[in-house]
Amino acid sequence: AVPDEPGRPLVMAFTSRSVNLSWTPPLSNHNSYILHYLIHIRIGEEGIWDDNLVFETESNSTSTQMKNLQPFSTYSFRVTAVNALGRSRPSKESYYMITLREVPSGKPTITAAHNISSTSIVLSWSPPSLTSVHGEFIGYRITYKPRNAHGVAGRLLWEDNTPPTEILLKDPAITRYVIQKLQIFTQYLVSLQIYNPEGLGPSTTVVVMTDEGVPTMPINVTFGEIKNSSVQVHWHEPYAPNGIIQGYRLYYMHQNFTDVRTVRNPSPQMQYLLEGLEPYTNYKLWLKAFTWKNEGMPSESFEMLTDVQGPDFPIITNLTCKDETSIFIQWEHPLQYFKAIDFYYVWYRSEGRWEYEEEIIDMDFEKNKNGGSILIKNLTTNTMYELKVRAVTQSLYNASILYKGLFSEPSKILITRNCDVVRASNILTGERLEDSSSGSPALNLELSAGVIAGGACVSFALILAILAFGLWRKYFNESYYYLDESPSTPAPSLVPDWDIESNTTDASIGSVMIGVSSIGSSSSASSGTTRRTAIPAHMFIQHVDNLHALNDAGFSSEYEMIQAMTSISDYPADSSYLADNKTKNRYHNVVAYDHSRVQLRPLPGQKKGEYVNANYIDGFQKARAYIGTQGPLPSTFDSFWRMIWEQRVRVVVMITNLVEKGRRKCDLYWPTEGCKVYGLIEVAPVREEVMCTYTLRTFKIKHTKIKSGKQRLSERIVLQYHYTTWPDHGTPENPLPVLSFVKKSSAANRDGDGPIVVHCSAGVGRTGAYILIDAMMKQMKAKCELNIVAFLRHIRTQRNYLVQTMEQYVFVHDALAEAVASGETNINISYLSRYISSLQSSFTTDENSVPWQLSDRQFKLATSYRPGESQFTASALKPCNQIKNQNFDYLPIESGRVFLTGKSGIEGSDYVNASWLPGYHNLREFIVTQHPIEQTAPDFWQMLWDHRVQNVVILSSLQQPEFGVFWPTKQVHMDLESNIRVKLTTEDSTETGYQTKSFQLISLHEDSDTSLSLKFIYCPSWPHACSPISSVTDLIRSSSLLKKGGSLNSSSYPWVIVDRFGGTEAASFCAISTLLKQLEAENHVDVYQIAKVYHNRRPGIWRSQSDYLFLYKVIEAVVNSDKHYSTGMSLRVPPEGMESLVCKEGYASPPLKRH
Fold this sequence. Notes:
It is built from 17 helices and 60 strands. Strand 1 and strand 2 form a beta hairpin. It is of the alpha+beta class. The radius of gyration is 43 Å and the shape is extended. It folds into six domains: about 90 residues, Immunoglobulins (Immunoglobulin-like), CATH 2.60.40.10; about 100 residues, Immunoglobulins (Immunoglobulin-like, Sandwich), CATH 2.60.40.10; about 90 residues, Immunoglobulin-like; about 120 residues, Immunoglobulin-like; about 220 residues, Protein tyrosine phosphatase superfamily (Protein-Tyrosine Phosphatase, Chain A, Alpha-Beta Complex); about 200 residues, Alpha-Beta Complex (Protein-Tyrosine Phosphatase, Chain A). The C terminus is likely disordered.
């Protein structure tokens, strides 16, 4: 039989990982030898006897040692005897025992470690498994010390001899701790351990960096060369930058008015040329360095006096001859001079000579307060002399520098034997004549008859010029009066010959005309010469800069030349003046030339077709590429649509609104719903797509008298591209949307389609600008040159007044310069990865040149706009508003800021630091603003109320005191001074981890029951650090689902996007939202256009090239990961684990640091 059960095992000794057991043998082995024993182990008081936890002894000894146990664990044991016949019953279990403690073997897992201010770090962790504590879990030990770097032999080493600071947390339940009172912008080694009564476990160590603070003051500020309008300022960086110096602000004050310049690209030793100063003026200057946090301490202030400037022109008061060989000239000091006048230069020459002779007069300014005079001798009798005077002032800082003033008006005098003689008593015998303070009548101004006659001629010519200008303004201005006319036979269509000069090979080709003088000297149409006016594309930008010089003098000269060469009187328009046709002209002075007028086919019973005010206009290397016409009148709707049908028109371009500034500019010539018949043509709307700057309408037109058959169709599709944001009698503020509109509308006209019909109101100004831009872009693509002058002269012979104003002419040049500079930026998604790769590739022009990247040039071009000072001083920098700005790098420009309902008598009450940004569907789709502070929170809520905002996205983290909570709690509502009550109604968290809050805004006015419901979507620190770059769009897509009233981009009310300063994160959110919509609708994206338009609306939002490239990389990640955007081709998908992360180069913006 099997043996009886052994005795209860007893614990004789134990350690942390072993136990010595002893037991008595069975009372009877039933005559079978005991072979060995089995030791059963149970862990814990409530544990089970696991068959897998059985230890077999090596012999039949009644004692053994159990090893490999866990420290500080409860165990019990029982024994089974084994003989040849089998196992006995288990013994009674031993008494519970606990192994001894050990130091912990487990270590906590740090789940988050980042800064929350410039002097504090937050650490979050999860505890280790309790089985690895090996004793009573007392708590945690945190140690930290600065991680100081130093270089040795070219290598970067880390000092490790600094004693760490220790923090003991005697609560195992703690999983988060904030370390405070740290050094600013310093890396710390932070270690975390658990401990029990036996000691400390292994540590988990991370490197964390405190946030940036504000720097100390710049040092060693000195002045270099001081000039009359500038000063060179030198300084060194602060002793304690306390962060990454983003730049410096140079403040300068004059007469209690303070201005500021921001200096970027910091280095240890800085210099800056402060320009735009007033001459001979005292300025007080000081400097502040700034990090992304804020400005630091100001440097010591310094005072300096700018140098003098050349004086204004003197006034000649007396010019007479003393005798037949000498002239006496007297003058008054200039009306404006600086400090004093040290010299006068008198220049004179005889008639017929080119060079002037010069007399220099050393001036004692204190003795000659009124002016100066001189007697010039040894002249030739019976000769006409021309004289002029200029004043000179010596530099305050360099005696060798003379600032020469303006010359006086030249004066002429004829020396004869019988000329007037100046009394000798009033003339000193030397060359220099002192000014007489007695005001002797003998020194009165006596100008020759030639001078008087010349002045009279000049005055008469000036009067004629003023009268001519007035008549021109009256005749050419859009004082539009209604008129009418009848058709004539159109001239035969010829291939355009305006660009024939582009192929000439005469000697003039060698010197391309650039600038004012060269263009102004180009030959007229009547001269028959072929002087080349085409500008190579690579020289066009410089050409436009030259035309802009001297207050657009080049444009003025060139445009006047074009107008003079294309007089309306040169081309008959008899049909337009016929009595029957006068009511068919929208404006009295805009007619249709007979030789190029579009003529409709006569209807049955008509001898000739109906009149329409429209002309064929040539394009680049294509005759009759366009039809320019007026905005249709109700009386011309039928003929307009019949023209569309007869000319096989597919694209109609409309560049006007129906009503502008209260005046009717065009009539509604299309049906808005349901089909409508216009004469013989039935028009039915198919769809309408509203974009940010234009609307695309699709119509189906049908000829009611034609039945469809094999040879002809009775139905056609017509596309109307309606540009809605071109101001009347003005130009758009940004050419990029216009360029995009021209490209898309022109590309929609297929080969074989009829002309593109272009109309504005009169069909001349904006119409001509569109045609000129489109034709020149085609020429640039085909020939790499632009011939604006020749082409505009040519098309003005086909329809009067095309490009009606000089402002439009300038805009066309600026738009084409933008097209040349930026190239094609609207990229098809199938080429997007290749395009981004080319942007980031390095190029060199030769072996010695510095490598450059296209992305760098594109970023600089996108951020090249510098708003004028008035854009900020009008509101943002007013003293009453400066306290409302969190960061002076992010200010709204006046033309793009969001206005509040102002309070009567309170200056600045209409200001909030917020800017309008366009989206895909709306010109005012987004409001970008800073995180409200205590002073601006009421303005923020007022803004939401005024603009009926229903959705707010908050991207800023809550960090007291700068970025605190600005909304009420559920228990306490908020009442504003503007009689608005704000109530928090609900709070929730989404599956994607974003928080939502719903608010009710209620008017407290007795006579109003108006309210507004809105929702906050709260996602702090977006885009999240070290997350896949494609996840950046998760918030945008979630916002579309969470918002009130539809998709993100189709709301009729603006979205408000909040980050800390209304800067990069908010702009990135808006840009990516817009680009995703464009991607979905067009399979194209234009990152450059969005980035540049946004920069122009809120300068400074793109701080670095990485911010710009981040937009590209997000869209690329979306394209590569989302099957929705597949176009049937194989899109590149990154390997698993290789997707770009936000924390890498793709997005390295300082405000989103995570260390």
